[in-house]
């Protein structure tokens, strides 16, 4: 049983898969190979520079002050280690499926299924968050032009109910209702009532997902052109905001640089990392690249570097223009320019926010169907998911299903825990990809020579580096470790996760000393694992429930239908 759970796919088998599927009647032809390194870099930027830079960056800056720029650097380094590992995999396994396919090679079927299920959190559920954010930006933009949609058509039931509860509390306390509470009151009373319940649905979020799904269904070439246009537009706007914003910077606002210490900076982990999720979406398009072994690694690394520079500059502008304590708002970029009397720039930012989140939706809606397509090819999902449209050469059924799964919940779902859940799914994938490089099998040609990919992960012996870093970490965290072990039976989930991380770090440090592992994948595992344990415990509970559902699906269907089982 345990052997069959961890059955692995050989690299030879994986490289033949697209051709085998064509022969087995999955649509009669493969995917269009149209993407270049420029397109892949553009897709990476499209996925990264989105809702994070226009919304979650404000909350992160509020918690960490100007020092939040350090967190972007830390997160970029963390993603950088993972990106190099993704690049090694992409060069050796140039097939759609991203971390799911890579895990199948390195760890076996059960782990591959788990990571594939986790990636649904990153792509499908993550896109619900992006769609809801898009709706907010779009409504703000319409308001700026004097167009007012009915409030009950632009929000979800939970948000509307909570907002009205604040109205009632304010009225009970005899407070004067401000603009936002007046809006919430009017929205509640104007909403239609059916069976005693006030009806609220987010129509703009639903409509944009439907339109994006149609575009991704029609073809990769059309999606590529749209993505490139959107990325050029939003980068120009962001550069404009950075240049203009520096003229309004007061250097005094950067002091103190770490007002709430490094703990305050770490509070923004989830918000900041949410800004970075998605650069791995590039790897899902491997089969549509003209030269995947060369261009996939370049696209990942180029996009990561460009996005990091933009985020750091934006953070310094935001925290320099106004005190960091005023940045806990939904639209920090537009807000700071309103404070300095430049309302016209805030309108440009609103347009760019709509464009930016549209590009994120587009890339994520491309990624999810291709992961399902790979899982279906392996027999873990019904054959229908791997069907290729004969005319558009896209995974048609998977694309339709992704559209439905994202569009319908976006009508009524609250943004709430979705950001944290999406970050857990992504970091979980990064941990497995980084660790998987260590177990990636060698390919030997007929001459007995080891065949490498076009990108080779640089080897840096970790025998001394990792133990030194481990010792430094333990020096600073010793009190927390001792407290956790002393009160183990009374600790909450957050501290238990921390102790599990310490156990993981200890194990990997010993293994690195003994086997002289490469520093890059080891640091990729440890950095991502540490960011994982900083995410609130409540989100982990939901994540475990999600994983439980996934395992039920696997043992009810995938385990028995797997092609490797046959």
UniProtKB/TrEMBL annotation:
Classify the protein's membrane topology as the record does. Multi-pass membrane protein
One Pfam match: AA_permease_2
Q: Which GO terms describe its cellular component?
A: membrane
Question: InterPro entries recorded for this chain?
Answer: AA/rel_permease1, CAT_C
* The keyword Membrane is assigned to this record: yes
List the GO molecular function terms: amino acid transmembrane transporter activity
Q: Which residues form the signal peptide?
A: none
Q: Which residues cross the membrane?
A: 40-62, 68-89, 110-134, 199-220, 227-249, 261-279, 300-324, 344-367, 397-418, 424-445, 457-476, 496-514, 519-535, 541-560
Cationic amino acid transporter C-terminal domain location: 519-562
- Give the UniProt keywords, A-Z: Membrane, Transmembrane, Transmembrane helix, Transport
Q: Where in the cell is it found?
A: Membrane
Q: Does the keyword Transmembrane apply?
A: yes
Superkingdom of the organism of origin: Bacteria
Q: What is this protein called?
A: Amino acid transporter
